[in-house]
């Protein structure tokens, strides 16, 4: 059968779906990824067929407007939200508006039997309803859209009306969830658990020999540097942690290397390596709290020291801290002395290590993406043919 995957132009959202897309292809299904033009390179690197649709949106500018206010960086300038609900929902709406019409047209031409979309790519739900096939959400972290559901009907209504749709259900026919239950929020549906198979983009696996000291990986994802390089704290963190007590590895992109500033002697900088290839052999992850980074750390069984600067990063860090596998350090408290104290404390915290190990074990025990394929085949097969708008 044909399966259409879609995400708006934020590569980490696509990355979460890549293992399932390849599992569908390996099972003999025809897969197509659709998204805005600027996502094409990320899809090509993943080796997946890609159809550009719609137009790009200044999502980076929108994210910049809702960074967490701090004493260190001040309160970001932001335009009025022009509506109810969290400001981020307006960004998702803008991307859906830029994609929906083209995606519906593509879906009508290509005729997939199933549309899989990231939970914030609402155009996927609209296209599925428009052609009468099931929409399946693929989570990449905490299901923040579940709590935002009261606002979604109002935001989706204009797009739905253009295609003759009413009462759109943004939660779709099923939700695939790679997030461990201990860190996921409570929901009123039965998720489809899947093993998180890390895909962090292309790159070369570095050789990290066994270390005589605890090894700490410092990484700051890709979002923060795009939003505001001043908030890219990886360099400050590695300078705070560099000491005879630990070995520090900084995992950054080539473009981020200059933003690190002076690198202390003994700190290794790894450029453009997939994070999942760096974390084995590490004992602690220090990062910004992004969903993909945190989930990759969980899969590696690492305690995490997280310094979030965006609302969703704070939500993920909070859940992980409540599970006992992380410490959330507000950016205004992230002095060199506090970073060092918290990192060394986590390295010697048996409870945090045990909590991180439990999360790794739960992830490892979940069904692999290949094992989820038959379930999606059943979802597509059981979805009765009804007029558009009634699903």
UniProtKB/TrEMBL annotation:
Every Erythromycin biosynthesis protein CIII-like N-terminal domain range: 22-221
Q: Residue limits of the Erythromycin biosynthesis protein CIII-like C-terminal domain?
A: 237-378
Keywords from the named record: Glycosyltransferase, Signal, Transferase
SUPFAM superfamilies xrefs: UDP-Glycosyltransferase/glycogen phosphorylase
- Highest taxon above the source species: Bacteria
Gene3D superfamilies attached to this UniProt entry: Glycogen Phosphorylase B
**GO MF annotation terms:** hexosyltransferase activity; UDP-glycosyltransferase activity
Please name the GO terms of the biological process aspect recorded for this protein, alphabetically.
antibiotic biosynthetic process
Annotated signal sequence range: 1-23
UniProt family annotation: Belongs to the glycosyltransferase 28 family.
Q: What is this protein called?
A: Protein IroB
Q: Which organism is it from?
A: Spongiactinospora gelatinilytica
């Amino acid at each position: 059968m044909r399966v259409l995957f879609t995400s708006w132009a934020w590569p980490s959202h696509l990355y979460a779906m890549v293992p399932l897309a390849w599992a569908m292809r390996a099972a003999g299904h025809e897969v197509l990824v659709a998204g805005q033009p600027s996502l094409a390179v990320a899809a090509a690197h993943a080796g997946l067929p890609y159809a550009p649709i719609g137009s790009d949106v200044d999502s980076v500018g929108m994210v910049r407007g809702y960074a967490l206010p701090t004493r260190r960086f001040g309160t970001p300038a932001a335009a009025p939200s022009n509506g109810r609900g969290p400001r981020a929902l307006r960004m998702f709406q803008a991307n859906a508006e830029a994609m929906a019409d083209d995606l519906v047209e593509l879906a009508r031409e290509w005729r997939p039997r199933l549309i899989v979309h990231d939970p914030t790519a609402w155009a996927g739900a609209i296209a599925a309803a428009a052609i009468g096939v099931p929409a399946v959400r693929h989570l990449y972290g905490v299901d923040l859209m579940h709590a935002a559901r009261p606002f979604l009907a109002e935001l989706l209504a204009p797009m739905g009306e253009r295609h003759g749709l009413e009462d759109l259900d943004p939660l779709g026919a099923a939700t695939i969830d790679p997030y461990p239950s201990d860190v996921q929020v409570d929901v009123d549906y039965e998720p489809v658990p899947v093993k998180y198979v890390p895909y962090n983009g292309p790159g070369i696996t570095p050789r990290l020999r066994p270390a005589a000291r605890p090894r700490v990986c410092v990484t700051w994802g890709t979002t923060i540097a795009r939003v505001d390089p001043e908030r890219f704290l990886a360099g400050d963190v590695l300078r705070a942690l560099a000491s005879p007590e630990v070995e520090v590895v900084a995992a950054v992109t080539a473009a981020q290397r200059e933003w690190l500033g002076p690198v202390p002697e003994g700190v290794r900088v790894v450029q453009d390596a997939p994070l999942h290839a760096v974390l084995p052999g590490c004992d602690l992850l220090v990062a910004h709290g992004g969903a993909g980074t945190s989930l990759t750390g969980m899969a590696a069984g690492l305690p995490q020291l997280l310094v979030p600067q965006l609302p969703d990063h704070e939500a993920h860090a909070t859940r992980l801290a409540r599970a006992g596998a992380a410490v959330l350090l507000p950016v205004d408290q992230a002095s060199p002395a506090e970073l060092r104290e918290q990192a060394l404390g986590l390295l010697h915290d048996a409870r945090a290590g045990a909590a991180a190990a439990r999360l790794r074990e739960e992830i490892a025990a979940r069904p692999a993406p290949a094992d989820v394929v038959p379930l999606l085949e059943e979802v597509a097969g059981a979805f009765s043919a009804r007029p558009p708008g009634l699903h």
